[in-house]
From TrEMBL:
<dbReference type="InterPro" id="IPR021005">
    <property type="entry name" value="Znf_CGNR"/>
</dbReference>
<dbReference type="Pfam" id="PF11706">
    <property type="entry name" value="zf-CGNR"/>
</dbReference>
<dbReference type="Pfam" id="PF07336">
    <property type="entry name" value="ABATE"/>
</dbReference>
<dbReference type="InterPro" id="IPR023286">
    <property type="entry name" value="ABATE_dom_sf"/>
</dbReference>
<protein>
    <recommendedName>
        <fullName>Zinc finger CGNR domain-containing protein</fullName>
    </recommendedName>
</protein>
<dbReference type="InterPro" id="IPR010852">
    <property type="entry name" value="ABATE"/>
</dbReference>
<feature type="domain" description="Zinc finger CGNR">
    <location>
        <begin position="138"/>
        <end position="181"/>
    </location>
</feature>
Amino acid sequence: MLITHDTRCALDAVVDLVNTSPEGDETPDGLPDVAALADFVRNHEFSDVGVLSEFDLSAVRKVRGRFAAIFAEPDARTAAGLINELVAAAGTTPRLTDHDGYDWHVHYFAPGASVADHLAADCGMALAFFVVAGEQERLRRCEAPDCRHAFVDLSRNRSRRYCDSRTCGNRLHVAAYRARRKEAAG
Ligand SMILES: [Zn+2]
Ligand SMILES: [Zn+2]
């Protein structure tokens, strides 16, 4: 499957976005205010989003919840339905561009789109291509029980299990090792 520069950027953005979701009492919302959203937009180099407002913040959080449901959704038909809804609500204007010295690629967001619509259109389409390629299972959640972060497995044999093998993968190995030792000692 061909992953162009823009698809890669969109995937990074959607993974980062989903991973700002609050979880229980321990993980607060990673997008608590408009300033945090502005940082997110800056980090991902979104162009043309204008001045951000509370309205943008709540729209982005809504889109985030819809993206979150797509990661680790086992059923392709369900994932396709969710992506269709997201992209349709955003309204898209596909257009070819070779901005900033990149090869020709397609932008999906409409000119002047809000940041939420920009995310829904371009990240939604990036995820759509995984369904098209029959590779939707690459949209994963970390298997470390106390993590569950979203990630996209771009490994050749789709074997990646953790969002970060150095932290989550390693932490799990250590826990398994300790459990084995305890059992052996017991
Ligand atoms: Zn581009
Ligand atoms: Zn993890």
